[in-house]
Design brief:
- It is a single chain.
- The chain has 473 residues and is α/β, with parallel strands linked by helices.
- The protein folds into two domains: 82-363, Type I PLP-dependent aspartate aminotransferase-like (Major domain) (Aspartate Aminotransferase, domain 2, 3-Layer(aba) Sandwich); 367-404 and 416-441 and 463-473, Alpha-Beta Complex (Aspartate Aminotransferase, domain 1).
- Helices cover 37% and strands 15% of the residues.
- The chain has 16 helices and 17 strands.
- The chain has helices at residues 2-12, 16-26, 34-40, 66-69, 78-88, 102-115, 126-143, 145-148, 169-173, 218-230, 254-265, 322-325, 348-363, 366-381, 418-428, 450-465; strands at residues 45-49, 52-55, 60-63, 119-123, 157-160, 192-194, 234-238, 241-242, 248-249, 268-272, 301-304, 316-320, 390-396, 399-404, 431-432, 435-436, 439-443.
- The strands form four sheets. It has a seven-stranded mixed β-sheet, sandwiched between helices. A four-stranded mixed β-sheet has the order 1-2-3-15. Strands 13-14-17-16 form a four-stranded antiparallel β-sheet.
- The protein is globular, with a radius of gyration of 23 Å.
Length: 473
């Protein structure tokens, strides 16, 4: 304890002014307009306790985005910290390029049982897990061209409009045309895009009242038609909820429809569970809401990340069926093996941490315990429908998006920065969230308490209502 306190004091000894100067001079932040960052002066975090993060001035913030959607059990969970330290004392790193280590073997076996797919390929983040899935799917289609009916035809993949699968070039490509990918369009391949599934702004939606849903699943029927006509080699989809596209739940039956259609046309179904896996939607994996863990229903490839390590260290995994694995088997001299692998693939510290994370789900009966919290969160969120500037509330489990509007479905002008105005107000009230445009993102840790949900909702109500101060509407 004494050593821990000394480390904390060491971090806090620097003056805020000094740290901000160094930060602006040297640190280029991800997904951050640095001119705006300089103006708003975000908190500088030095400590995490439970579901809270603490800045260098000692101010606490409820971590309502799970530190970018990955921290599951709160900060400084003793069991997870111990798993890191204990493994670090034994073996810090050992390559898995043609070599094995104990934690990576144990974790591969554990994940195979959890997901239902036999083969596990490790990586360091979700984007790479998707990149690996793309390369696996490409080689599988290429080496089995007759089965897919793609003889001598270009291999094509499909995705759902407004997808987000990561920031590497392949992952960006399979996300389709979005605000995140347009800058780099000349570097990317173009997938077949299935229609958007955002009910609030659906071209077929005839709803007139706020929160009303009148749907005949036209987007699903159109997607079916496109798949049958275009016959892609693989379809990529997020695990029941599109994340960075604006927290968009897939329509009921959508994943089941994709599984049925991909089987009919001989395409692979790749489910990206990087953001949705490990309890975030209320089940261990998002696909489990519609697909049973049977060989004929399971996805062909599943990508994991974020919560795999409990959100403490970078670890991801791509799981595949034996049928895919077998196309890479051959003699050593043939060069048929999978040409992919990074320095820290299967790192023992990361894998030991993930093993402890999985163990916590079982030991603490987490999936059962979170159900009451999810119902309570949904109940409290429904209170926001009465607010003037709330256009839509959508999500599943602990993943929610609240779309801020000027009126009806009319957005505020981009320069107004409605989403950011609400978030900055939330920071002042002791809640950290970050918007996606004018969509307020709530992505809570599984360890959230009901009193913390109450604290969050009261801050949300006040901060959204405060928009009235900035507009004459």
């Amino acid at each position: 304890m004494k050593g821990k306190k000394m480390r904390e004091e060491k971090q806090m000894k620097f003056k805020e002014e000094t740290l901000r100067r160094w930060d602006l001079k040297h640190f280029w932040h991800p997904y951050t307009q640095m001119n705006f960052y300089k103006k708003i002066k975000p908190p500088i975090i030095c400590k995490g306790e439970g579901n809270w993060i603490i800045d260098i001035n000692g101010k606490k913030y409820l971590d309502a985005v799970s530190s970018i959607w990955c921290v599951l059990h709160g900060h400084s969970k003793p069991e997870l910290v111990k798993a890191i330290v204990s493994q670090a004392k034994i073996l810090q790193h050992s390559t898995t390029l043609g070599l094995a280590n104990v934690p990576s073997i144990l974790l591969a076996k554990e994940l195979s049982g959890l997901v239902g797919l036999p083969k596990v390929f490790f990586s360091e983040d979700g984007a790479e897990a998707v990149e690996i899935a793309i390369k696996m799917a490409f080689s599988f289609a290429k080496r089995n061209s007759k089965k897919f009916g793609n003889n001598n035809k270009k291999i094509k993949f499909a995705c759902v409009k407004n997808a987000y699968h990561g920031d590497t070039l392949g992952a960006m490509s399979i996300s389709g045309k979005t605000q995140f990918t347009k800058e780099y369009s000349q570097l990317l391949f173009s997938p077949i895009e299935l229609p958007p599934v955002l009910c609030f702004r659906c071209g077929w939606n005839r709803a007139k009242e706020k929160g009303e849903r009148i749907c005949s699943f036209e987007c699903m029927e159109k997607a079916r038609d496109i798949l049958r006509k275009k016959r892609p080699s693989a379809v990529f989809v997020e695990g029941g909820v599109q994340g960075a596209g604006g927290i968009i739940p897939l329509p009921p039956g959508y994943l089941k429809m994709l599984r049925e259609e991909t089987k009919k046309i001989g395409a692979l179904l790749v489910v990206d569970e990087v953001a949705t896996g490990f309890g975030k939607t209320g089940k261990m994996f998002g696909f489990e809401w519609e697909l049973k863990k049977k060989q004929d229903e399971l996805p062909d490839i599943v990508c994991l990340g974020k919560g795999l390590s409990g959100g403490y260290l970078p670890l991801a995994a791509t799981l595949a069926k034996d049928e895919i694995f077998k196309v890479f088997l051959g003699e050593q001299w043939e060069g048929k093996h999978f040409f992919h692998g990074h320095t820290f693939t299967g790192n023992p510290i990361l894998c030991n941490l993930a093993l402890e994370n999985v163990k916590l789900f079982k030991k603490e009966n987490i999936l059962q315990k979170i159900q009451d919290k999810i119902r309570y969160l949904e109940k409290r969120l429904s209170e926001l429908w009465d607010l003037e500037f709330v256009g839509d509330i959508r999500g599943k489990g602990f993943m929610w998006g609240i779309e801020i509007v000027k009126k009806g479905k009319e957005s505020f002008p981009p320069r107004f920065l409605a989403g950011w105005r609400v978030c900055l107000s939330m920071w002042k009230k002791g809640v950290f969230i970050r918007p996606l445009g004018d969509v307020l993102v709530i992505n809570l840790p599984l360890s959230i308490k009901t009193k913390e949900i109450d604290f969050l909702l009261e801050a949300l109500k006040e901060s959204i209502s405060d928009l009235k101060k900035f507009t004459k509407i």
